[in-house]
Amino acid sequence: MRPRGSGALFRVPKDTSKPLQYWTAIVELPSHDGTRRRKVVRAKDPKVAARKLRELQNDLEKTGDMPTASQTLESWLRYWFSNMHTLRVRPKTAATQRGLIENHIIPAIGTIRLDKLTAQNVRNMHQIITSKVQEKGKNKGKPISSTTALQAHRVLSTALRDAEREGRIPRNVATLTDAPKRDRTHLVTLNAEDGVAILLEAAKEQNARMGSRWAAALLTGARQGELLGLEVNRVSDVLDVSWQLQRLTWAHGCDGTCGRIRGTDCHKRKLNAPADWEHRHLTGGLWLSRPKSSAGMRLVPLVEPLRSIIERRIEMAASEPNPYGLVWTAEPKRDRKTGQPLPLDGTPIDPKDDNKAWHDLLAAAGVQDARLHDARHATVDLLYEAEVSEADITRVVGHSTVAMSRAYRSHGNDKRLREGMSRMSQLLAH
Q1: What is the predicted pLDDT for the residue at 426?
Q2: For residue 422, what pLDDT is reported?
C-alpha cells in the first residue's frame, strides 16, 4: 500500500493515439480498516489536474484526512444536524434551526458540493433568503427583516466549522463573507395604562380562574414558560422561577424502522438534548426545563397586590385536580361531539393556548395587540405606581441596575394611572 499523501497523475485513456477524455489525479488517504482509500479528481486540462492534485495534498497535510466521495451541502447538513448538533443544543433551539436548514439553506444552496462551496454561494444564499422574506412580508403586510438571513448564516457557519474540523472541507467559507446585519426591531410596548386596562379585564368574573396568571405576568415581567411551569411548592415570599414549561418535539428512536412519520408516534421515541441539560417530562410533549444559564434561575419577590392574588390562586388550585403541582393548569377541555366543557383534569397549560388567551384578553381590553414578552414596560410602570421600591422593581424584572428599570418607565398621566391602579386593586381584592 502506497504511503499516505502520495499522488499520481495520468491520462485517460493512457493510449495517446486515442482521443483524450480527461486527466485523473489520485491522492492516497489514511486507511480506516486496512483497506485502501483514495481521493480522485478529474480535469480536461493536465495543468488543472496537476493543480488539483497539489491542492488535495496540501489539504490532506492540514487536516489529516478527507472523505473519498463528493458530498452535497444538503447531505452534510442532514448528517450534521441529526448526529452532532442536536446533541449539544436545546430542543427548542434545534427546532428553530431545523426550520432554517429545511426552509432556507437547503433550498438556496443545498445542491452544491460541500467541497465546492464558495463565499459567493453564501452571499447568494443571503440574497435569496432576504428576497423570500421580503416577498412574504409584503404579502402579509408585515415589516421586512433580514434577521432570517442572519440566523441562517450562523447555522451554516457552525455546520461548516464542524465540517472543517472533520477534514471534509479545507476551510469554512462562511467566515470569508460578512454576515447580514440585524435590522432594528419595531416592537409594540405596553405602558402602565395598557397594563391597568388588561388587569381590569382579567379581574372580571368570566376571567376569575386565570386572571391571576395575567396579573403575575404584568406584575413580575416573568417569561411565559417561567409562570406556566411554576409549581406550588416553589412559592413562598418569592416566586422561584428556576424551571420553565416548554413544548418540545419528540424524535425517532427506531432508526427509521417504525414506519411512522412523526417522532411522537414512534414506539421508541426520544428527546434529543445535551447530556448536561436538566429537564423533567410532565405529559405528552410538555416538559419542565432549566433556564439556559444560572442567571435565569432567579427569585422574584412577592409584593402587593401580587402576593394576595397568588395566595388566592393557590387556595383555588388546592381544590382542583393538580397531578403536576402547578400553580396554573389548563382550562376545561370540551367534548368533541357536544362542545360541552369537561371536568378539569389538571393538565399543564399549552404555550400555544396561553398565547391565544393573551391576545384574546388584549382584544377584550381594547388594548393594541402585542407579544406577551413585550409587556415588561407595563410591568415596570405598574410596579412604580404600586409604590414598590426601586430596588425591588429591579429584582422583580431581573434588571442589572436601577437605572435600567427607570429607563423602562414611561411618563404618562400619573393621576389617571393611580386612579386606575386603585380601581384594579379593589376589583382584585374580591
Answers
A1: 54
A2: 53
pLDDT at 356 exceeding the cut of 90:
yes
Name residue 82's amino acid: S
Domain boundaries, the chain: 7-63, 73-176, 192-248+285-428
Q: How far apart are CA 245 and CA 349, in angstroms?
A: 9
Distance CA(95)–CA(358), nearest Å, equals 24
How many angstroms separate the CA atoms of 412 and 187, rounded?
19
pLDDT for 166 equals 82
Report the predicted TM-score, pTM, of the whole model to 2 decimal places.
0.69
- Residue 124, amino acid: N
Residue-wise pLDDT for 96-120, tens only, equals 999 999 999 999 999 999 988 999 9
CATH 1.10.150.130 fits 73-176, yes or no: yes
CB of 283 closer than 8 Å to CB of 330: no
Secondary-structure class of domain 192-248+285-428 per CATH = mainly alpha
N-terminal to C-terminal alpha carbon distance within the chain: 87
Q: Cα 363 vs. chain centroid, distance in angstroms?
A: 27
How many other β-carbons are positioned within 10 Å of the β-carbon of residue 152? 26
Place of cell 431581573: 398
